[in-house]
């Protein structure tokens, strides 16, 4: 069985990576009613390698955009693990993308578009969301980007 969302993913040339395990004392998702807060995930590729480094120093905006896209794919993998079916997601409500930035880097929004664009490509209007994209002095493991989100799902 392939959900509509996974079919769209495949059309874009992606498959879901193995969902990342939490790397600390936290849940990968917490739920209240039909709202789920997804914990932040880093820019880890399907092969386990990471897009690491500082934007504006080690990495270009395009590399950061790809990193944010991998964050979104990792979030989707966690959503599928949590829900069993990505078609249960009715809305991406909020995205926060934290960008490992050099002091003079100011294009965090363009980097985090990597995640936002994928959500809109997959979910259409329901993928449009409010967002924050702050620059950070450092991120765990020197990962390039961490993205978290809040989603709404169909009632059980």
Provide a descriptive summary of the structure in words.
The protein is α/β, with parallel strands linked by helices and 156 residues long. The chain has helices at 4-11, 61-83, 108-123, and strands at 29-32, 35-42, 89-100, 130-132, 135-136, 145-153. The chain is built from three helices and six strands, in the order H-E-E-H-E-H-E-E-E. Strands 1, 2, 3, 4, 5 and 6 form a six-stranded mixed beta sheet that branches. Helix 3 links the parallel strand 3 and strand 4 (130-132). Helix 2 (61-83) packs across helix 3. The longest helix has 23 residues, at 61-83. It is globular, with a radius of gyration of 15 Å. The mean pLDDT is 96.
- Average pLDDT over all residues: 96
Topology pattern, helix = H, strand = E: HEEHEHEEE
The biggest sheet, with number of strands, parallel, antiparallel or mixed sense and barrel status, is: 6 strands, mixed
| Oligomer type | single chain
Per-chain topology:
Blueprint: H1 4-11, E1 29-32, E2 35-42, H2 61-83, E3 89-100, H3 108-123, E4 130-132, E5 135-136, E6 145-153
Parallel strand pairs: 3-4, 3-5
Antiparallel strand pairs: 1-2, 2-6, 3-6
